[in-house]
Design brief:
single chain, mainly alpha, 4 helices, 64% helix, 0% strand
Length: 148
C-alpha cells in the first residue's frame, strides 16, 4: 500500500478507498444475511402455525410437500443464515463460503416455493442474489486480506 500525501484539498488518494469499500460491502452482506435468516425463521413459523395464509395450498407448489416440512426447513435455513452472517462480521473465511452456499440454497428454495407467497419470496430471492454479489465481489486493490 502506498502512502501518498493528501491532496491540496485535504482528501486522500482514491487508492485507499477499495479496502474500506469492500469492508463495507461485507458488513452489508452480514447484515443482509442476518435479516434474511430472520425472515426465513418467520416464514418457517408461519408455515408451521398459520399455513392458511399462503396463496396456494401445498398441492399448488412446484414440489408437493406439507407446509410443516417446509416450515422446519425454513427454520433450519434461517438459523444457518444468521450464524453465517454473524461469522461474516468477524471476517471468518468459513462464513464467506457458507454464506455463498446458503444464499444459493435459499434462492433455489424460495424459487421452488414462489407460488405460495409470490411477492415475499421474490423479495427474498433478490436479497439472496445481492448477498452473493456482495460476498464474491472483489475490489481492484486489497480488502480481502482481512479474511486471511
Amino acid at each position: 500500500m502506498s502512502s501518498q500525501a493528501p491532496a491540496a484539498d485535504g482528501r486522500r488518494n482514491d487508492r485507499a478507498r477499495p479496502g474500506w469499500f469492500v469492508s463495507g460491502i461485507i458488513a452489508f452482506a452480514a447484515l443482509m444475511m442476518m435479516l434474511l435468516g430472520s425472515l426465513h425463521a418467520l416464514s418457517g413459523f408461519m408455515a408451521l402455525f398459520e399455513e392458511d395464509r399462503y396463496v396456494v395450498g401445498s398441492n399448488g407448489l412446484l414440489v408437493h410437500v406439507d407446509y410443516s416440512v417446509y416450515g422446519v426447513v425454513h427454520l433450519a435455513l434461517g438459523i444457518t443464515m444468521v450464524m453465517a452472517g454473524w461469522g461474516l462480521f468477524f471476517r471468518r473465511t468459513w462464513a464467506r463460503v457458507v454464506t455463498v452456499i446458503v444464499a444459493l440454497v435459499s434462492a433455489v428454495f424460495n424459487w421452488v416455493f414462489l407460488p405460495a407467497y409470490p411477492a415475499w419470496y421474490a423479495l427474498m430471492i433478490g436479497l439472496d442474489v445481492l448477498i452473493i454479489w456482495a460476498v464474491v465481489m472483489r475490489g481492484d486493490e486489497g480488502g480481502w486480506e482481512e479474511f486471511e
